[in-house]
Amino acid sequence: MKALVLDATWDPRAEYTPSPMELETRKALIGSSVWRHPHADFKEVRSPALGPDDVMIRVRRVGFCGSDLHFFETDAAGYIRYPGLTRFPTILGHELAGDIVEVGRSVTDIGVGDPVTIEDMVRCGTCYPCRIGQPNHCENLDEIGFSLDGGFAEYVRVPARNCWSIRNFRKRLATDEQTLYECGAMVEPFTVVYNALVHGAGGLRPGAYTVVHGAGPIGLASVAMLRSCGAARVMVFEVSKPRRELALAMGADAALDPRDGPVHEAVLDATEGLGADLQIEAAGAFVHTLPAMEQSVAIAGTILVIGRDAAHVSIYPEPLQVKRARLVLAKGNAGLGTYPHVLRLMASGRIDPRPMITGRYRFDQILTAIETSRARGHGKILVTVA
Ligand SMILES: [Zn+2]
Ligand SMILES: [Zn+2]
Questions:
Q1: Which residues, in sequence order, are CB contacts of 134 under 8 Å at separation 6+?
Q2: CA 25 to centroid of ligand 2, rounded, Å
Q3: Which residues carry out catalysis?
Q4: Which of 8, 157, 314, 339 could disulfide-link 48, Cβ–Cβ 3.0 to 4.6 Å?
Q5: Contact 2, 154 (CB under 8 A)
Q6: Distance 366 CA to ligand 2 centre (A)
Q7: 141 and 85 Cβ atoms separated by less than 8 Å
Q8: Which residues are near ligand 1, the ion (C-beta closer than 5 Å)?
Q9: Distances (CA, A) of 321 to 80, 111, 315
Q10: Which ligand is the nearest neighbour of the Cα of 129?
Q11: What is the pLDDT of residue 67?
Q12: Per-residue pLDDT at 306
């Protein structure tokens, strides 16, 4: 079958000592400290074999994520920018939808023909974090499209427990098959936001003033999620004009260029001088966003950091203490009922991801699609595999 395979050289930085687990599994916990000189090939590979607890999915749609781009982009020394879990060579692609075409002999609750999306984090279920209900911190974590073969391929093998049916999208959201698979491939970024907002920050108080910094896919998903949770106002800061327009299309009340003036002043102006009850960092630009959030958080407000940034930054606790504010940091989307709840929000029409889709490419145009998404003017780029 055809697939997009990313490979890189295992060459830990001088100051990074891989753990025994990393050396044994060749899984890097901090990819940006280990993998060098990445290169992608769109090539013929062997189809995966099925285990008893697995299903085989014929991929229909797969999306590009900021993380995918961070595999290709390197620093001056040639190291990849993605700071998380990675093992190469790997077929990329973790935001996908397709049909089940084969099931392992132990699989009973899902069957051939079911349209599904996948939960990309594969947790072990038996380590300490898994056993105390913290699946995002599994010590033996694998991730489809990061350390296991993913969905930029005609077929992907996935543990059955990582599949979620998107059949209910047909009731309201998706009146045709094209929309069904497109929406299915859009679920993953919303689960990242749901995990951070609900499990990390403890949810949103209806009537809250909210701000989102950055309107890439995670920022755009944040806008829709805050709206569906009852935010009184959603304000967005984003440098790209097309992305500001997308933020408005996803339900933001205002979308401003952070370079047009002090961000904290704009937030205070828009909130009667009170500051925002919840601010989401989805830009991965901490050096700019953290000081602005510190100066414009409301009393008992929350700063929620979802964006990833390899930079070391300082924080100034004083304004946060005086406001009794919280700084919450979140990652992941595993378990905890996150997927079924996001699927229900979409199936019911409370969240419609479609305005975020700004690019559609054929499977054989995949390398062009990567180049296009590097310009970062897009919402979500989807590739049609079948
Ligand atoms: Zn993603
Ligand atoms: Zn585990």
A1: none
A2: 15
A3: 67, 70
A4: 157
A5: yes
A6: 33
A7: yes
A8: 65
A9: 37, 53, 12
A10: 2
A11: 82
A12: 96
DSSP letter at 177 equals H
Contact call for residues 156 and 138 (beta carbons, < 8 A) = no
The average pLDDT across 336-351 equals 96
Closest ligand (CA of 135): 2
Confidence label for 375 from pLDDT (cuts 50, 70 and 90): confident
Q: What is the pLDDT of residues 241-258, one digit of tens each?
A: 999 999 999 999 999 999
Task: Report CA(275)–ligand 1 centroid distance (Å).
Answer: 30
pLDDT attached to residue 297: 97
Distance 314 CA to ligand 1 centre (A): 27
Q: Is 100 helix (H, G, I), strand (E, B) or coil?
A: strand
**Type of residue at 160:** A
The residue whose two tokens read 């055809």 is 2
pLDDT tens track for 259-311: 999 999 999 999 999 999 999 999 999 999 999 999 999 999 999 999 988 78
pLDDT at 171: 93
Please check the confidence at residue 353 and state whether its pLDDT lies above 90: yes
Tokens of 8: 């890189």
Question: Which tokens go with 116?
Answer: 């599904």
φ/ψ (deg, to 5) at 185: -75, -10
Which pair of tokens denotes residue 379? Answer: 């919402």
Distance between CA atoms of residues 34 and 17, nearest Å: 9
Give the distance (Å) from ligand 2 centre to CA of residue 295: 38
CA of 321 to the centre of ligand 1 (A): 33
C-alpha distance from residue 45 to each of 3, 42, 153, 255, 317 (Å): 7, 9, 9, 44, 52
Looking up tokens 């504010």 gives: 325
Q: What percent of the chain has pLDDT above 90?
A: 88
Ligand sitting nearest the alpha carbon of 66: 1
What residue spans of the chain are helical by DSSP H?
20-25, 66-72, 128-131, 177-185, 187-194, 217-228, 241-249, 263-270, 286-294, 317-322, 338-347, 366-373
Q: Which of 73-77, 155-159, 305-309 has the highest mean pLDDT?
A: 155-159
Provide the pLDDT for residue 197.
98
The rounded distance, in Å, linking the Cα atoms of 28 and 86 is 5
Ligand nearest the Cα atom of residue 333: 1
How many angstroms is it from 220 CA to the middle of ligand 1? 13
